[in-house]
Design a protein that fits this description.
CATH topology: Glutaredoxin
Largest sheet: 4 strands, mixed
Order of helices and strands: EHEHHHEEH
Pfam families: ArsC (PF03960)
GO molecular function: arsenate reductase (glutaredoxin) activity
Number of domains: 1
CATH architecture: 3-Layer(aba) Sandwich
Organism: Streptomyces minutiscleroticus
Radius of gyration: 14 Å
CATH superfamily: Glutaredoxin
Structural class: alpha+beta
Helix content: 25-40%
InterPro entries: Arsenate_reductase, Arsenate_reductase-like, Thioredoxin-like_sf
CATH class: Alpha Beta
Family: Belongs to the ArsC family.
Length: about 120
């Protein structure tokens, strides 16, 4: 499995501690340095079963600068949201764990991390 993290994020550090405590085999991706492209974001969204606005941190300064709260949340705007996430990775909710079975979870809680571990 792979976990997308921002080392400054307490939820990310908590998820890593739990993965380590469970002896999980995982790879860390510092997604602010190793920025996912639009295709990767589309893939992760498919694995999550979510839309781009569902994993967007709308309180970030970049979100406010872009006016994301005013953007439509529909199929016609989907690609615009994905492009914004690729261009401004700080907007991506974290941590995200991609599991070996092809699924993914936004692992902001211990329960979500355990869900990823059970796959």
């Amino acid at each position: 499995m792979e976990i997308w993290i921002n080392p400054a994020c307490s939820k990310c550090r908590s998820a890593l501690r739990l993965l380590d405590a469970e002896g999980a085999d995982y790879t860390v991706r510092r997604y602010l340095e190793d920025v996912p492209g639009e295709d990767e974001i589309r893939d992760v969204l498919g694995r999550l079963g979510l839309e781009p606005w569902d994993i967007t941190r709308t309180q970030e300064p970049a979100a406010k600068e872009l006016g994301l709260k005013e953007w439509p949340r529909d199929a016609g705007a989907r690609e615009r949201w994905i492009a914004a996430l690729a261009a401004h990775p700080k907007l991506i909710q974290r941590p995200i764990i991609t599991a070996e079975d092809g699924s993914a979870v936004v692992a902001r809680t211990d329960e979500a991390v355990r869900e990823a571990l059970s796959r």
